[in-house]
Design goal:
Distance between the termini: 65 Å
Oligomer: single chain
Low-confidence stretches: 59-67
Strand order of the largest sheet: 2-1-3-4-5-11
Largest sheet: 6 strands, parallel
Length: 339
């Protein structure tokens, strides 16, 4: 199939020719109105053709008609967290395909209320995507009915137009099932010391998964999300009176790294004396030795789905909540219980 002439700007007709579809189909896909009308395979063919041709829709007339700024705000807990950097990468990739700008805004306190970074969010933005934030903390940003898509948040809350979540409960069930199958019965949950929906889901799922196996013991130790705090909490858990736990299930990879350091300082071998699991599958998971068994969260896919959901809401919705699958990646920090 021929593309545009050399030096010429690619048009929707060029995209349609390369993808082997009609211009109407190109318009549906690039306008995020294809669901229920064309297949996922056809939509991906159109997006692939658009990328290869460098096609960008001419949005000027559409923006004027809709009163759009073509700008979205992504609120994240911390820019230093690799997970949220990947969420941004996914959101920005989809936004770029549709000529949308993304303003990245970290919550000033890391986790908590986010102030309006603009004199008037309503006049400046089309909508907000907020990750791991309480919906009521974003009141200033939603003044005047600014659309809100929540990531990693309670889908039962009514404040958001829709939610995009990871199947965190299933991730914890996978980790627990793996350790139970290895014969572990004495567990510590090294939990993030943050009162948020995402960590409450993890705790409840782990407790439920272990409850059905006779003879299983579970205690909980909390720590802020740093390696140093994870180390101190793990040392406390491993030196308390009574039988030592054989498995520590950590709420994220940073806490798991701290746990591995604590074990070494106490003269324990991972995994021979202590099995450790993480959550996220950050780069850190393969930087430690042995490499970390952890639950992989598809962060970029979260960002992509969040941006597509916001575009669907802006186009009149409704947009159904999304629940994305996760998977346990078994590496070197888990093995059969030694007793």
């Amino acid at each position: 199939m021929r593309g545009p002439r050399t030096g010429a700007r690619a048009t929707s007709r060029d995209v349609a020719r390369v993808a082997g579809v009609s211009q109407a189909t190109v318009s549906l896909v690039m306008g995020e109105k294809w669901r229920g009308r064309v297949s996922e395979r056809t939509a991906e063919s159109v997006r692939s053709a658009a990328r290869s041709l460098g096609y960008r829709p001419n949005l000027a007339a559409r923006n004027l008609r809709l009163g759009r700024t073509r700008t979205a705000l992504l609120v994240v807990p911390a820019l230093t967290n690799e997970f949220f950097a990947r969420v941004y990468t996914g959101a920005a990739r989809v936004a770029a395909e549709h000529g949308i700008g993304v303003v990245l805004y970290p919550s000033p306190e890391g986790v908590g209320p986010a102030r309006d970074p603009f004199a008037s969010a309503r006049a400046t933005l089309d909508g907000v995507i907020a990750s791991s934030m309480a919906a009521e903390a974003l009141g200033a940003l939603r003044e005047g009915g600014l659309p809100l898509v929540m990531l990693d948040s309670d889908p039962e809350r009514a404040e958001a137009a829709t939610t995009v979540n990871l199947d965190l409960a299933d991730g914890m069930r996978q980790a627990a099932g793996h350790l139970l199958a290895l014969g572990h019965r004495r567990f510590v949950h090294l939990a993030a010391d943050i009162d948020s929906w995402t960590f409450r889901v993890r705790a409840a799922a782990l407790a439920e998964a272990l409850r059905g196996t006779p003879g299983t013991e579970l205690s909980v130790v909390r720590a802020p999300l740093t390696v140093a705090d994870g180390l101190r909490a793990a040392e406390h858990a491993l030196t308390r009176p009574g039988p030592r736990p054989t498995a520590l299930v950590c709420d994220d990879d940073v806490l798991a790294a701290g746990t591995c350091k604590a074990a070494r300082r106490l003269g324990l071998r991972v995994p021979e004396d202590l099995s450790v699991t993480g959550f996220d599958d950050l780069s850190l998971a393969t930087a430690v030795e042995p490499e970390l068994t952890t639950v992989r969260l598809p962060a970029e896919e979260v960002g992509e789905a969040g941006m597509r959901a916001l575009m669907g809401v802006l186009d009149g919705g409704p947009v159904a909540p999304r629940l994305l699958p996760v998977e346990l990646v078994v590496r070197g920090t888990t093995t059969a219980a030694g007793g």
